[in-house]
Amino acid sequence: MAERTPATSPRRRRATASMADVARLAGVSSQTVSRVSNGYAGVNEETRQQVLTAMKELGYRPNSAARALKRGEFRTIGVITFSLSSTGNVRTLEAIANSAAAEGYAVTLLPVAVPTQDEVRGAFSRLEELAVDAVIVIMEVHLLDAATIMLPPYVQVLVVDSDAGDHYTVVDTDQAGGSRTAVEHLLGLGHETVWHLGGPEDSFAAQRRTDAWRAVLTEAGRTPPPLIRGDWSAESGYHAGLELAAREDCTAVFAANDQMALGLLRALHEQGRRVPEDVSVIGFDDIPEASSFLPPLTTVHQDFAEVGRLCVQAVLRKMRQHDEAERGTTLVPTRLVVRDSTAPPGSAG
After folding, report:
1. Measured in whole angstroms, how far is the alpha carbon of residue 340 from the centre of its chain?
2. Which of 224, 231, 308, 321 has its CB surrounded by the most CB atoms within 10 Å?
3. How does pLDDT run across 75-103, given as a tens digit for each residue?
4. pTM score
């Protein structure tokens, strides 16, 4: 009969393929197969491809649980985040995942649906049930309290975008430095003052940007105008823009992120206020679409890829050195990207 028996079917071969089978088919040693499976360096690309081809042909899948027991690690990093709706969080998460993959590590996401202390504690307690070696916390709100959260003793922790430097290893964008550059740019163009469309009250990043805006104006001898607050969304920027468009004394606005700046531009356009001739607008983030705004947006560039790389490097260093005591904050510099949405007050179009 032509019918295959279970012993010779492809499904059965895939289930029983071993590392030795892969080594024989690829013409290499079992040690080389192990090194490729574990993502170690020192295997040339041609040999690595031979091994990967053999694995695919045989349907071989490395036993990650066995490897973890042998090495004492899972090669997985947990990421706790409170929101996937903000540009900063999404791009930071993407950068962490890419950097982790480059080091041979996977990422397990632990989203916190409601930003409360109980939810935060619950996320950390779930680490006991998950196979992770370390955790990176992407903070947006004032919730991480070292006195109330019990961490698994074997898990190294790093925090992104937080004032928790006294308790944790922290990697953050230089929020204050970027905001200073933005406000100084507008004052340098000759604007008497700069209005600020700030982010939500519970955001560390928004607070740093607001504090820097206020400090630069005060140092320059200018009285800061009333703070107008949004929620990071373009819609909130639009509603704030309607309010600002009605003020003839408003000639320059620093928006705390590019999405709010987008809504602001729309409101100013609808109300007949030209940008940058009547009102200069500057944002923060330098999202990929910023150069396609009308007009193209002057903004503060955040290097999310570098933040992600430094997060992974730092947490792996803590794991490998078993460094429970490492503390302090690493700031990633920002840079001002000048486009067409800022100009001296009263500039001709």
Report:
1. 27
2. 308
3. 889 898 877 777 788 889 999 999 999 99
4. 0.76
